[in-house]
């Protein structure tokens, strides 16, 4: 194993990069002063890579390496957020162009060639490239990789390490390349995110995973970024992003029109599908230009000036919002200090309701979605709240047990960014499982099921099917604890059989005596049992 970038490794890299960006996005957000000091570059990169990872998850079983690279690039293109996210999607496209058609996993020379191609595509996508940004760091990574690959003995691992090292060295130089970074004393946020993505690639290829991914705040000797960081923005008032179905020849004219309207223009894509990003004063004109070129959709317009709080604006409070449908879980979250947004079982809360709750909570708010289907809605609601000047972070908790783990380490006296990082780490370190009762016949990853069967799921995948809740629960617990664990959290559902908690506590006491057990009444209707392992 290791030192191979095949189909499975590409998937693991993408998931690993998403996880790495999730753990560092608050730090990257805090660096964000160019082109707009809106504090969301880390979040945008995280969401872009998540979109790519989800596209990979949707591939059919028979997909090959070319399909995998194409899905990676297309998923990032469709889900790209912000200036840096759009550029990163073009990086993935460049890698896919070169590595996708290969008959065998790439070596060092092939990877260097792919990175050079990706660097050229990314720079070509930006209408007015600026040095000291993600483009400069990408150039340096490609150059270092090419230099290392000139040796015939250089393998993929050495080439990837050279790219990541070259990127890190170039990242420190960004502070001196761009005036706004020099004044602020910080490195470029988008470039820092790219370094995390490359570090995750090295970790996957070498199977040497760091305990945490480092994001340097500033170059050695630079001034304190908190004192020097600009708080106001002069320039176009709106960020406009949309996907565009258009012929390639129409995009040249579109670029010219948008370049006259504003700045920060990035257009990526090809083969009839494009992602367009621009900052303008006339958002309507930017959308009309897209309509003239083809068919725009997923249009997002964000007012830029309102997104940054005034330097001396009063602090109105910090809060955590947790989303849940169950009475018992709501009480648990409230006991831990969170404000609860209730949703109907099986449905996400309305976007307007969640956004309003976030705005009412304070100007530094952490959101715990607690269900996969609520996560994207929470991100959209957070974006809406950020437009009003609040600092919002969404911890990617996909289960209530992850939300509880995040709340357990929440400390309102910490700096907001540090608190979000710790909460995100705690959620990510919690494996989750649950039981549910099949309502119809279906084919699952554990085999066929019939109505009334009890399904045991871990991280969303069915791992066992049985007739009794206690039997299936014991199997799921044993399987989850086979990889280790110190704390098992059991949240009992509304329709769980009587005595379930006592049965499972006894099983854990006998089979896993070193594991601490916490049992709570969640009152959830759909799931007889929720499980968390830390």
Structure description:
- This protein has 534 residues and is an alpha/beta fold.
- It is 50% helix and 18% strand.
- The chain contains 19 helices and 16 strands.
- It has a six-stranded mixed beta sheet with strand order 13-12-9-16-14-15, with helices on both faces. It has a four-stranded antiparallel beta sheet with strand order 2-3-1-4, with helices on both faces.
- Helix 1 packs antiparallel against helix 9.
- The longest helix has 25 residues, at 7-31.
- It is globular and about 70 Å long.
- Mean pLDDT is 84; it is low at 225-232 and 306-315.
Unreliable runs, pLDDT <50, ≥5 residues? 225-232, 306-315
Cα(first) to Cα(last) distance is 27 Å
Multimerization state: single chain
Mean pLDDT: 84
Strand element count: 16
Strand and helix layout:
Blueprint: H1 7-31, H2 41-57, H3 65-79, H4 82-99, H5 108-125, H6 134-149, H7 156-177, H8 179-184, H9 189-206, H10 225-228, E1 238-245, H11 248-261, E2 262-270, E3 273-280, H12 283-293, E4 295-303, E5 318-324, H13 327-335, E6 339-342, H14 351-361, E7 364-368, H15 372-386, E8 391-394, H16 400-409, H17 416-428, E9 431-437, E10 442-444, E11 447-449, E12 454-458, E13 461-466, H18 469-481, E14 487-492, H19 500-511, E15 516-521, E16 529-533
Parallel strand pairs: 5-6, 5-7, 7-8, 14-15
Antiparallel strand pairs: 1-3, 1-4, 2-3, 9-12, 9-16, 10-11, 12-13, 14-16
């Amino acid at each position: 194993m290791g030192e191979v970038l095949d189909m499975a490794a590409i998937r693991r890299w993408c998931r690993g990069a998403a996880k790495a960006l999730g753990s560092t996005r608050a730090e990257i957000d805090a660096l964000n002063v160019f082109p707009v000091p809106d504090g969301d570059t880390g979040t945008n990169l995280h969401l872009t890579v998540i979109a790519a990872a989800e596209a990979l998850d949707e591939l059919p079983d028979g997909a090959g390496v070319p399909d995998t690279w194409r899905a990676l690039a297309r998923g990032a293109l469709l889900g790209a957020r912000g200036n840096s996210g759009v550029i990163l999607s073009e990086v993935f496209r460049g890698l896919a162009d070169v590595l996708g058609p290969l008959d065998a996993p790439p070596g060092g020379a092939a990877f260097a060639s792919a990175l050079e191609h990706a660097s050229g595509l990314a720079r070509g996508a930006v209408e007015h490239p600026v040095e000291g940004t993600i483009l400069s760091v990408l150039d340096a990574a490609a150059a270092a990789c090419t230099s290392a690959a000139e040796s015939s003995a250089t393998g993929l691992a050495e080439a990837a390490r050279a790219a990541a090292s070259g990127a890190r060295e170039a990242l420190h130089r960004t502070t001196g390349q761009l005036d706004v970074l020099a004044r602020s004393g910080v490195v470029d946020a988008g470039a820092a995110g790219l370094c995390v993505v490359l570090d995750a690639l090295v970790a996957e290829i070498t199977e040497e995973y760091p305990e945490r991914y480092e994001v340097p705040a500033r170059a050695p000797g630079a001034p304190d970024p908190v004192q020097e960081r600009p708080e106001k923005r002069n320039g176009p008032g709106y960020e406009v992003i949309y996907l565009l179905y258009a012929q390639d020849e129409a995009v040249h004219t579109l670029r010219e029109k948008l370049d006259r309207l504003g700045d920060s223009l990035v257009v990526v894509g090809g083969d009839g599908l494009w992602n367009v990003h621009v900052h303008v004063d006339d958002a309507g004109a930017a959308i009309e230009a897209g309509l003239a070129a083809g068919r725009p959709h997923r249009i997002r317009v964000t007012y830029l000036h309102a997104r940054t709080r005034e330097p001396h604006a009063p602090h109105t409070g910090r809060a955590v919002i947790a989303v849940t449908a169950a009475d018992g879980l709501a009480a648990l979250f409230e006991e831990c200090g969170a404000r609860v947004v209730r949703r109907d079982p099986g449905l996400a809360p309305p976007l307007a309701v969640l956004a309003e709750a976030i705005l009412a909570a304070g100007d530094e708010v952490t959101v715990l979605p607690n269900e996969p289907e609520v996560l994207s809605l929470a991100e959209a609601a957070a974006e809406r709240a950020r437009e009003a000047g609040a600092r919002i972070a969404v911890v990617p908790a996909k289960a209530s047990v992850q939300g509880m783990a995040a709340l357990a380490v929440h400390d309102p006296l910490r700096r907001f960014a540090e608190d979000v990082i710790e909460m995100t780490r705690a959620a990510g370190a919690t494996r989750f499982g649950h039981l549910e009762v099949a309502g119809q016949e279906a084919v699952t990853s554990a085999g066929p099921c019939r109505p009334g069967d009890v399904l045991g799921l871990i991280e969303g995948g069915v791992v066992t099917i049985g007739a009794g809740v206690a039997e299936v629960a014991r199997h799921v617990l044993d399987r989850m604890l086979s990889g280790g664990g110190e704390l098992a959290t059991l949240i009992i559902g509304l329709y769980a059989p009587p005595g379930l908690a006592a049965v499972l506590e006894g099983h854990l006491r006998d089979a896993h005596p070193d594991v601490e057990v916490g049992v709570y009444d969640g009152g959830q209707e759909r799931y007889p049992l929720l499980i968390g392992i830390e």
